[in-house]
Please model this.
Amino acid sequence: MEKRKILLDVHTHTVASGHAYSSLQEMARAAAEKGLQVLGITEHGPSVPGTCPLVYFRNMFVVPRQMYGVSLLMGCEVNILDTKGSLDLDDFHLDLLDIGIAGIHGNCWQGGTRQENTDGMIEVIRNPKIHIISHPGDGTAELDFEQLVIAAKEAHTLLEINNHSLAPERKKAVARDNNLELLRLCKKYDVPTILGSDAHVSFQIADYERLYGLLEETNFPEELIMNYWPEKFFDYLGFDKGRELNKR
Model:
């Protein structure tokens, strides 16, 4: 399939996350070289070993929100901790973020039954401080995807289709089928989604090569892929129209 131009990638990590390999400026420069308009820097929340301390999020105001011609969103990939939808950033720190992503990571997740896991994630989907759910299809938790898609539509929260989860080295055996199911359900219910590179080095920015086959297999509508439409992305998530990203 002919690929439309990617203009936005909002799930990426720098060396501050502890297990990534590029600086913030290297990431921004790579985004500019790839022609992106918007880049999100979303370091891991405090429950992931080796990530940045809370003071990192309190000091993000020092970062210019325009760099090399790219608009920056400084945020966090917050950890969902349990079936109650508990998060590892409090409201004070969540309010400091330009963008809030939340996801389940096995090393800091206490799960339950399929329905309990789903109920907890729906609580997060409904949290107005969270804009995107990262890699819900990676198989770390068993989930009812139809319930998630319906909740995401109601809350205007985006469910991510994550490129990094499909890397063979990740050994996420169910990720491909789960993401196909998510795409089919989003198409069925006319729900936008977002592709996530989950880049841990600058060369991975806007890399969705493992996902294009899934989009083709599901004949997924371009108009529902937010990476192509920055203005639609901001409007859908409720960002103020004309918001100046370089001012906080």
User: Anything to note?
Assistant: Helices lie at 24-33, 54-58, 91-94, 114-125, 145-155, 175-189, 212-217, 230-236. The first strand starts at residue 8 and ends at 9.
